[in-house]
Write a structure and sequence with these properties.
The protein is of the alpha/beta class and 331 residues long. The chain is built from 8 helices and 14 strands. The structure holds NADPH dihydro-nicotinamide-adenine-dinucleotide phosphate.
Length: 331
Amino acid sequence: VSAATSPKPATETAVDTFTVPSEMKGWVYDEYGGVDVLKYSSNVTVPSVNDDQVLVKVVAAALNPVDFKRRLGKFQATDSALPTVPGYDVAGVVVKVGKQVKGLKPGDEVYGDVSEKALDGPKQSGSLAEYTAVEEKLLALKPKNLDFVQAASLPLAIETAYEGLERAGFSQGKSILILNGAGGVGSLTIQLAKQVFGASKVAATASTSKLELLKSLGADLAIDYTKEDFEQLPDKYDVVFDAIGQGEKAVKVVKEGGSVVVLTGAVSPPGFRFVVTSTGSTLTKLNPYLESGKVKAVIDPNSPFPIDRVKEAFSYLETGRATGKVVVYPV
Ligand code: NDP
Protein backbone atom coordinates (compact mmCIF):
# COMPACT_ATOMS: atom_id res chain seq x y z
CA VAL A 1 0.00 0.00 0.00
CA SER A 2 1.44 3.36 -0.91
CA ALA A 3 1.57 6.20 1.57
CA ALA A 4 -0.94 8.06 -0.57
CA THR A 5 -3.66 5.43 -0.18
CA SER A 6 -2.77 4.23 3.32
CA PRO A 7 -5.28 5.48 5.91
CA LYS A 8 -3.91 7.32 8.93
CA PRO A 9 -3.61 5.36 12.20
CA ALA A 10 -6.58 5.41 14.53
CA THR A 11 -7.01 8.09 17.17
CA GLU A 12 -9.36 8.17 20.16
CA THR A 13 -12.27 8.83 17.82
CA ALA A 14 -11.18 5.77 15.95
CA VAL A 15 -14.51 4.73 14.50
CA ASP A 16 -14.89 8.06 12.75
CA THR A 17 -11.33 8.30 11.49
CA PHE A 18 -12.13 6.80 8.12
CA THR A 19 -14.71 8.15 5.80
CA VAL A 20 -16.53 5.28 4.17
CA PRO A 21 -18.63 5.94 1.06
CA SER A 22 -22.00 4.25 0.52
CA GLU A 23 -21.03 2.94 -2.91
CA MET A 24 -17.81 1.41 -4.20
CA LYS A 25 -16.14 -0.15 -7.21
CA GLY A 26 -16.27 -3.91 -7.38
CA TRP A 27 -16.78 -7.02 -9.47
CA VAL A 28 -20.27 -8.43 -9.46
CA TYR A 29 -22.33 -11.09 -11.24
CA ASP A 30 -26.08 -11.50 -11.20
CA GLU A 31 -26.28 -14.81 -13.07
CA TYR A 32 -24.17 -17.97 -13.03
CA GLY A 33 -21.80 -18.62 -15.92
CA GLY A 34 -18.34 -18.16 -17.46
CA VAL A 35 -16.03 -15.18 -16.94
CA ASP A 36 -18.29 -12.99 -19.05
CA VAL A 37 -20.96 -12.79 -16.34
CA LEU A 38 -18.43 -10.74 -14.32
CA LYS A 39 -19.08 -6.99 -14.48
CA TYR A 40 -16.89 -4.25 -13.04
CA SER A 41 -19.27 -1.76 -11.48
CA SER A 42 -18.67 1.59 -9.80
CA ASN A 43 -21.88 1.55 -7.78
CA VAL A 44 -21.80 -1.57 -5.66
CA THR A 45 -23.31 -1.00 -2.21
CA VAL A 46 -20.68 -0.94 0.55
CA PRO A 47 -21.72 -3.76 2.90
CA SER A 48 -23.09 -2.88 6.33
CA VAL A 49 -21.13 -4.01 9.37
CA ASN A 50 -22.67 -6.42 11.88
CA ASP A 51 -21.74 -6.21 15.56
CA ASP A 52 -19.19 -9.02 15.25
CA GLN A 53 -17.68 -7.70 12.01
CA VAL A 54 -15.17 -5.14 10.83
CA LEU A 55 -15.17 -3.28 7.54
CA VAL A 56 -11.93 -3.86 5.63
CA LYS A 57 -10.63 -1.49 2.98
CA VAL A 58 -9.32 -4.06 0.53
CA VAL A 59 -5.71 -3.54 -0.55
CA ALA A 60 -5.17 -6.94 -2.22
CA ALA A 61 -7.36 -9.98 -2.86
CA ALA A 62 -6.62 -13.45 -4.19
CA LEU A 63 -8.53 -15.90 -6.37
CA ASN A 64 -9.30 -19.52 -5.56
CA PRO A 65 -10.83 -22.27 -7.71
CA VAL A 66 -13.90 -22.13 -5.45
CA ASP A 67 -14.57 -18.61 -6.81
CA PHE A 68 -15.04 -19.86 -10.37
CA LYS A 69 -16.77 -23.10 -9.40
CA ARG A 70 -19.24 -21.00 -7.41
CA ARG A 71 -19.63 -18.55 -10.30
CA LEU A 72 -20.36 -21.50 -12.61
CA GLY A 73 -23.26 -22.41 -10.32
CA LYS A 74 -21.83 -25.67 -8.97
CA PHE A 75 -22.85 -24.81 -5.42
CA GLN A 76 -26.18 -23.17 -6.20
CA ALA A 77 -28.05 -25.27 -3.66
CA THR A 78 -26.11 -23.78 -0.74
CA ASP A 79 -24.91 -20.49 -2.23
CA SER A 80 -26.00 -17.10 -0.96
CA ALA A 81 -28.38 -15.09 -3.14
CA LEU A 82 -27.28 -13.31 -6.33
CA PRO A 83 -25.96 -10.73 -7.13
CA THR A 84 -22.54 -11.80 -5.88
CA VAL A 85 -19.32 -9.92 -5.32
CA PRO A 86 -16.85 -12.84 -5.52
CA GLY A 87 -13.63 -13.25 -3.56
CA TYR A 88 -12.69 -15.13 -0.38
CA ASP A 89 -9.14 -13.95 0.29
CA VAL A 90 -8.41 -10.44 1.48
CA ALA A 91 -5.61 -8.33 2.90
CA GLY A 92 -6.38 -4.77 3.86
CA VAL A 93 -6.94 -2.16 6.54
CA VAL A 94 -9.72 -2.09 9.14
CA VAL A 95 -11.74 1.11 8.69
CA LYS A 96 -14.75 0.46 10.92
CA VAL A 97 -15.57 -1.96 13.74
CA GLY A 98 -18.84 -3.45 15.00
CA LYS A 99 -19.94 -3.02 18.63
CA GLN A 100 -18.80 -6.45 19.82
CA VAL A 101 -15.38 -6.32 18.21
CA LYS A 102 -12.70 -6.55 20.91
CA GLY A 103 -9.37 -7.32 19.28
CA LEU A 104 -9.26 -5.10 16.19
CA LYS A 105 -9.36 -1.35 15.68
CA PRO A 106 -9.42 0.99 12.72
CA GLY A 107 -5.99 1.18 11.12
CA ASP A 108 -5.09 -2.46 11.83
CA GLU A 109 -3.64 -4.34 8.85
CA VAL A 110 -5.39 -7.69 8.57
CA TYR A 111 -5.81 -10.71 6.33
CA GLY A 112 -8.24 -13.59 6.14
CA ASP A 113 -10.80 -15.66 4.24
CA VAL A 114 -14.04 -13.68 4.45
CA SER A 115 -16.41 -16.68 4.23
CA GLU A 116 -16.50 -19.01 7.22
CA LYS A 117 -17.98 -21.86 5.16
CA ALA A 118 -16.66 -21.92 1.61
CA LEU A 119 -19.74 -23.55 0.07
CA ASP A 120 -22.47 -23.02 2.65
CA GLY A 121 -23.77 -19.45 2.47
CA PRO A 122 -20.50 -17.77 1.45
CA LYS A 123 -20.43 -13.96 1.64
CA GLN A 124 -22.59 -12.20 -0.90
CA SER A 125 -20.17 -9.27 -0.72
CA GLY A 126 -16.67 -10.76 -1.05
CA SER A 127 -13.18 -9.36 -1.44
CA LEU A 128 -13.09 -8.30 -5.12
CA ALA A 129 -14.29 -4.81 -4.28
CA GLU A 130 -13.03 -1.77 -2.40
CA TYR A 131 -14.59 -2.82 0.91
CA THR A 132 -15.70 -6.08 2.50
CA ALA A 133 -17.32 -6.76 5.89
CA VAL A 134 -15.73 -9.65 7.79
CA GLU A 135 -16.30 -11.32 11.17
CA GLU A 136 -13.42 -10.48 13.50
CA LYS A 137 -12.88 -14.20 14.19
CA LEU A 138 -12.06 -14.86 10.50
CA LEU A 139 -9.19 -12.34 10.47
CA ALA A 140 -5.67 -12.11 11.83
CA LEU A 141 -3.14 -9.31 11.95
CA LYS A 142 -1.04 -9.29 8.79
CA PRO A 143 2.48 -10.69 9.36
CA LYS A 144 4.73 -7.63 9.64
CA ASN A 145 7.24 -8.78 7.05
CA LEU A 146 4.67 -9.57 4.37
CA ASP A 147 3.25 -7.03 1.95
CA PHE A 148 -0.48 -7.02 1.19
CA VAL A 149 -0.01 -9.09 -1.98
CA GLN A 150 1.77 -11.83 -0.07
CA ALA A 151 -0.75 -11.72 2.78
CA ALA A 152 -3.76 -11.86 0.45
CA SER A 153 -2.34 -14.96 -1.23
CA LEU A 154 -2.45 -17.02 1.93
CA PRO A 155 -5.72 -17.38 3.88
CA LEU A 156 -7.95 -19.93 2.14
CA ALA A 157 -5.06 -22.00 0.80
CA ILE A 158 -2.98 -22.10 3.99
CA GLU A 159 -6.05 -22.79 6.14
CA THR A 160 -6.95 -25.67 3.80
CA ALA A 161 -3.42 -27.02 3.99
CA TYR A 162 -3.38 -26.80 7.79
CA GLU A 163 -6.87 -28.20 8.34
CA GLY A 164 -6.20 -31.05 5.90
CA LEU A 165 -2.94 -32.01 7.62
CA GLU A 166 -4.62 -31.91 11.03
CA ARG A 167 -7.64 -33.93 9.90
CA ALA A 168 -5.29 -36.51 8.39
CA GLY A 169 -3.55 -36.81 11.76
CA PHE A 170 -0.27 -35.69 10.27
CA SER A 171 2.56 -35.33 12.81
CA GLN A 172 6.30 -35.28 13.31
CA GLY A 173 8.25 -38.08 11.66
CA LYS A 174 5.53 -39.09 9.21
CA SER A 175 5.83 -39.21 5.43
CA ILE A 176 3.45 -37.51 3.00
CA LEU A 177 2.70 -37.45 -0.72
CA ILE A 178 1.07 -34.25 -1.97
CA LEU A 179 -0.73 -34.52 -5.31
CA ASN A 180 -0.49 -31.11 -7.01
CA GLY A 181 2.39 -29.62 -5.08
CA ALA A 182 2.65 -26.49 -7.25
CA GLY A 183 -0.85 -25.05 -6.93
CA GLY A 184 -2.12 -22.62 -4.32
CA VAL A 185 -2.84 -25.25 -1.67
CA GLY A 186 -0.07 -27.74 -2.47
CA SER A 187 2.74 -25.16 -2.43
CA LEU A 188 1.76 -24.32 1.15
CA THR A 189 1.06 -27.92 2.18
CA ILE A 190 4.63 -28.88 1.29
CA GLN A 191 5.96 -26.09 3.51
CA LEU A 192 3.62 -26.74 6.45
CA ALA A 193 4.27 -30.49 6.36
CA LYS A 194 8.01 -29.87 6.52
CA GLN A 195 8.34 -26.73 8.64
CA VAL A 196 5.36 -26.85 10.99
CA PHE A 197 4.48 -30.55 11.33
CA GLY A 198 8.03 -31.98 11.06
CA ALA A 199 7.56 -34.44 8.20
CA SER A 200 10.24 -37.09 7.76
CA LYS A 201 9.66 -37.16 4.00
CA VAL A 202 7.68 -34.95 1.65
CA ALA A 203 6.97 -36.08 -1.90
CA ALA A 204 4.88 -34.03 -4.33
CA THR A 205 3.73 -34.12 -7.94
CA ALA A 206 3.89 -31.49 -10.69
CA SER A 207 4.84 -31.22 -14.36
CA THR A 208 8.49 -30.96 -15.46
CA SER A 209 9.04 -27.19 -15.25
CA LYS A 210 7.72 -27.02 -11.66
CA LEU A 211 9.88 -29.73 -10.05
CA GLU A 212 12.56 -27.27 -8.94
CA LEU A 213 9.91 -25.16 -7.23
CA LEU A 214 8.67 -28.19 -5.28
CA LYS A 215 12.23 -28.84 -4.06
CA SER A 216 12.78 -25.20 -3.13
CA LEU A 217 9.63 -25.38 -0.99
CA GLY A 218 11.00 -28.38 0.92
CA ALA A 219 9.96 -31.46 -1.06
CA ASP A 220 12.45 -34.32 -0.70
CA LEU A 221 11.08 -36.00 -3.80
CA ALA A 222 9.52 -34.18 -6.77
CA ILE A 223 7.58 -36.54 -9.03
CA ASP A 224 7.05 -35.47 -12.65
CA TYR A 225 3.51 -36.63 -13.40
CA THR A 226 4.13 -36.25 -17.14
CA LYS A 227 6.84 -38.95 -16.95
CA GLU A 228 6.03 -41.12 -13.95
CA ASP A 229 2.89 -42.57 -12.44
CA PHE A 230 3.13 -42.25 -8.65
CA GLU A 231 1.02 -45.38 -8.31
CA GLN A 232 3.77 -47.41 -10.03
CA LEU A 233 6.54 -46.21 -7.69
CA PRO A 234 7.52 -48.47 -4.76
CA ASP A 235 6.98 -45.90 -1.99
CA LYS A 236 3.99 -45.87 0.35
CA TYR A 237 3.13 -42.92 2.58
CA ASP A 238 1.61 -42.30 6.01
CA VAL A 239 -0.57 -39.57 4.51
CA VAL A 240 -1.60 -38.72 0.95
CA PHE A 241 -2.91 -35.18 0.48
CA ASP A 242 -4.79 -34.94 -2.81
CA ALA A 243 -5.17 -31.39 -4.14
CA ILE A 244 -6.07 -32.36 -7.71
CA GLY A 245 -8.83 -35.01 -7.69
CA GLN A 246 -6.96 -38.33 -7.88
CA GLY A 247 -8.52 -39.85 -4.78
CA GLU A 248 -8.99 -43.29 -6.30
CA LYS A 249 -5.27 -43.56 -7.10
CA ALA A 250 -4.26 -41.87 -3.85
CA VAL A 251 -5.71 -44.65 -1.68
CA LYS A 252 -3.41 -47.14 -3.43
CA VAL A 253 -0.19 -45.55 -2.18
CA VAL A 254 -1.09 -45.04 1.47
CA LYS A 255 0.44 -47.29 4.15
CA GLU A 256 -1.88 -49.51 6.10
CA GLY A 257 -3.41 -47.44 8.89
CA GLY A 258 -2.56 -44.17 7.10
CA SER A 259 -4.92 -41.45 5.85
CA VAL A 260 -5.87 -39.97 2.53
CA VAL A 261 -7.34 -36.49 2.53
CA VAL A 262 -8.84 -35.15 -0.69
CA LEU A 263 -9.97 -31.64 -1.56
CA THR A 264 -11.93 -32.41 -4.69
CA GLY A 265 -13.40 -35.39 -6.54
CA ALA A 266 -14.34 -38.88 -5.48
CA VAL A 267 -12.55 -41.04 -2.96
CA SER A 268 -13.18 -44.35 -1.24
CA PRO A 269 -12.16 -45.35 2.34
CA PRO A 270 -9.83 -44.76 4.04
CA GLY A 271 -9.87 -41.54 2.01
CA PHE A 272 -12.11 -38.66 3.04
CA ARG A 273 -12.99 -35.23 1.73
CA PHE A 274 -13.53 -32.05 3.72
CA VAL A 275 -14.35 -28.42 3.03
CA VAL A 276 -12.23 -25.76 4.69
CA THR A 277 -13.59 -23.66 7.54
CA SER A 278 -12.17 -20.14 7.70
CA THR A 279 -10.57 -19.36 11.07
CA GLY A 280 -8.42 -16.36 11.92
CA SER A 281 -6.85 -18.31 14.78
CA THR A 282 -5.12 -20.65 12.29
CA LEU A 283 -3.52 -17.62 10.65
CA THR A 284 -2.49 -16.22 14.03
CA LYS A 285 -0.94 -19.58 14.91
CA LEU A 286 1.00 -19.62 11.63
CA ASN A 287 2.12 -15.97 11.76
CA PRO A 288 5.43 -16.80 13.56
CA TYR A 289 6.37 -19.22 10.74
CA LEU A 290 5.55 -16.56 8.16
CA GLU A 291 7.40 -13.86 10.10
CA SER A 292 10.51 -16.03 10.48
CA GLY A 293 10.42 -16.82 6.75
CA LYS A 294 10.12 -20.59 7.37
CA VAL A 295 6.86 -20.55 5.43
CA LYS A 296 6.66 -18.30 2.37
CA ALA A 297 3.86 -16.99 0.21
CA VAL A 298 4.08 -18.39 -3.32
CA ILE A 299 2.80 -15.85 -5.87
CA ASP A 300 2.19 -16.85 -9.46
CA PRO A 301 4.71 -15.00 -11.69
CA ASN A 302 1.88 -13.68 -13.93
CA SER A 303 0.28 -11.90 -10.98
CA PRO A 304 -0.64 -9.60 -9.37
CA PHE A 305 -3.39 -8.52 -11.75
CA PRO A 306 -4.81 -5.03 -11.15
CA ILE A 307 -8.49 -4.98 -10.14
CA ASP A 308 -9.71 -3.95 -13.59
CA ARG A 309 -8.12 -7.13 -15.04
CA VAL A 310 -9.96 -9.63 -12.84
CA LYS A 311 -11.50 -11.39 -15.86
CA GLU A 312 -8.02 -12.13 -17.21
CA ALA A 313 -6.94 -13.27 -13.77
CA PHE A 314 -9.86 -15.72 -13.64
CA SER A 315 -9.29 -16.96 -17.19
CA TYR A 316 -5.70 -17.68 -16.23
CA LEU A 317 -6.60 -19.46 -12.97
CA GLU A 318 -9.20 -21.47 -14.87
CA THR A 319 -6.52 -22.96 -17.14
CA GLY A 320 -5.48 -25.03 -14.09
CA ARG A 321 -1.84 -24.13 -14.72
CA ALA A 322 -1.27 -21.39 -12.13
CA THR A 323 1.77 -21.73 -9.89
CA GLY A 324 1.09 -20.75 -6.30
CA LYS A 325 -1.51 -18.01 -5.98
CA VAL A 326 -3.12 -15.59 -8.41
CA VAL A 327 -3.39 -12.25 -6.61
CA VAL A 328 -5.38 -9.12 -7.48
CA TYR A 329 -3.60 -5.84 -6.68
CA PRO A 330 -4.01 -2.93 -6.53
CA VAL A 331 -7.71 -3.05 -5.68
P1 NDP B 1 -4.61 -24.39 -8.39
O1 NDP B 1 -5.46 -23.87 -9.48
O2 NDP B 1 -3.69 -23.44 -7.72
O3 NDP B 1 -3.75 -25.62 -8.99
C1 NDP B 1 -3.02 -25.40 -10.15
C2 NDP B 1 -1.89 -26.41 -10.25
O4 NDP B 1 -2.42 -27.73 -10.54
C3 NDP B 1 -0.93 -26.12 -11.36
O5 NDP B 1 0.29 -25.62 -10.83
C4 NDP B 1 -0.77 -27.46 -12.07
O6 NDP B 1 0.57 -27.79 -12.26
C5 NDP B 1 -1.37 -28.45 -11.10
N1 NDP B 1 -1.84 -29.67 -11.75
C6 NDP B 1 -2.71 -29.78 -12.79
N2 NDP B 1 -2.88 -31.08 -13.12
C7 NDP B 1 -2.10 -31.80 -12.27
C8 NDP B 1 -1.86 -33.19 -12.09
N3 NDP B 1 -2.44 -34.11 -12.87
N4 NDP B 1 -1.02 -33.58 -11.12
C9 NDP B 1 -0.41 -32.67 -10.32
N5 NDP B 1 -0.60 -31.34 -10.43
C10 NDP B 1 -1.43 -30.91 -11.39
O7 NDP B 1 -5.55 -25.08 -7.34
P2 NDP B 1 -5.59 -24.97 -5.73
O8 NDP B 1 -4.32 -25.51 -5.19
O9 NDP B 1 -6.03 -23.63 -5.33
O10 NDP B 1 -6.79 -25.99 -5.44
C11 NDP B 1 -6.65 -27.35 -5.78
C12 NDP B 1 -8.00 -28.05 -5.79
O11 NDP B 1 -8.48 -28.14 -4.45
C13 NDP B 1 -9.11 -27.33 -6.57
O12 NDP B 1 -9.93 -28.30 -7.15
C14 NDP B 1 -9.86 -26.58 -5.50
O13 NDP B 1 -11.20 -26.32 -5.86
C15 NDP B 1 -9.77 -27.56 -4.36
N6 NDP B 1 -9.87 -26.92 -3.04
C16 NDP B 1 -10.73 -27.48 -2.13
C17 NDP B 1 -10.81 -26.98 -0.85
C18 NDP B 1 -11.68 -27.66 0.16
O14 NDP B 1 -11.91 -27.08 1.22
N7 NDP B 1 -12.17 -28.85 -0.10
C19 NDP B 1 -10.06 -25.78 -0.46
C20 NDP B 1 -9.14 -25.31 -1.48
C21 NDP B 1 -9.08 -25.87 -2.73
P3 NDP B 1 1.06 -28.22 -13.72
O15 NDP B 1 0.99 -26.99 -14.58
O16 NDP B 1 2.42 -28.73 -13.45
O17 NDP B 1 0.11 -29.28 -14.22
